[in-house]
Amino acid sequence: MIPGFGNRKRFDDLTEQEILALAISSEEDDASIYRNYAERLREEFPGSAAVFDGMAKEEDEHRRRLIELHKERFGDVIPLIRREHVAGFYARRPVWLIGNLSLERIRAEAEAMEQDAGNFYKKAAARTKDASTRALLGDLAAAEAGHSEKANELEREHLDDETRDQEKTIAHRQFVLTWVQPGLVGLMDGSVSTLAPIFATAFATQNTWTTFLVAMAASVGAGISMGFAEMASDDGELSGRGSPYKRGLSAGVMTTLGGLGHALPYLIPHFWTATVIAMAVVFVELWAIAWIQNRFMETPFMRAAFQVVLGGALVLGAGILIGGG
Predict the structure, then answer these.
(1) C-alpha angle with apex 140: 136 to 141, nearest 5 degrees?
(2) Which of 56, 153, 308, 325 is least crowded, fewest Cβ atoms below 10 Å from its Cβ?
């Protein structure tokens, strides 16, 4: 009997029939994963989806050959043994997580899958004494090792230069909409909106520890608020902006970091030293925002710099005037 999850077998203890059964179930799982990849990509990346359809068919053929060999050697009844039943055996990412993977990450996952499968067949072939089984497992090891070339052939068939460029453009746009845009909004909010309360507190109290506590509260509070606001604003289904959780995470983290940049200098006990350093950090933050706008949002750098620096300077000035008054 095949042990359950809490009492798994070692690979070296598997019989030849169990090795074949494990190979059959693994090929079935991999084909299913490739088909899920294809479905995940079909709407936006039809060329890449066709590549994974082809790879799924390859896995189906491997499974068919393994089943024929099992029937020939052991009969029609195939033992139920899967990866999770074998101690130390490689695992696969749950299929429900693929929605969170980018196109390039999916391709990298597929490459790692082929490497894992190739290593398994090499080890399985070394454990097998039957000549026909050893030959088939060796052939499958070679096939898995050659899948990168097969994938290249499928890509050449389904992905011409124009299609590849279109997919890169779509992937870049999705990255910008899901991560960069909400992160940029968060960074701007955290860097600019916290300037007034932080510097008002600094100049009103001239107490660095009090200023630091206010700055931390403002930064973390703003981060939490921005994160939840981004998640609630759009589920991404109609707008195509991607997962609301990813966008909320990006906006929340960057908002917090934007405020923490000029909060941390107030850990320095000397007021003017801390304040001068905090102002220098603000200057760097504002120019970083302008660079991100130029790099990812295609906003002319000088226009972005003028808008961000002017806005930040006005908020900073307001904070100093309120706190100094």
Answers:
(1) 115
(2) 325
CB neighbours of 134 closer than 8 A, spacing ≥ 6?
A: 125, 128
Q: Are 240 and 176 in contact (CB under 8 A)?
A: no
| Residue 294 neighbours by CB distance under 10 Å | 16
Contact 165, 48 (CB under 8 A): no
Question: Is 92 in a helix, a strand, or coil?
Answer: coil
pLDDT tens for each residue of 254-295: 999 989 999 999 999 999 999 999 999 988 888 888 888 888
What domains are there in the chain, each with its CATH number? 5-159 (1.20.1260.10), 165-324 (no CATH)
Phi-psi map region of 300: left, alpha, beta (phi>0 left; psi -120 to 50 alpha): beta
- Residues 244/176, Cβ–Cβ less than 8 Å: no
Amino acid identity of residue 134, one-letter, is R
Q: Given CA atoms 154, 158, 162, 164 in this order, what sign does their dihedral have?
A: negative
Beta bridge partners of 86: 9
Q: What is the pTM of this model?
A: 0.53
Quick check: helix, strand or coil at residue 128? coil
Query: Contact, 60 vs 26, CB < 8 A?
Result: no
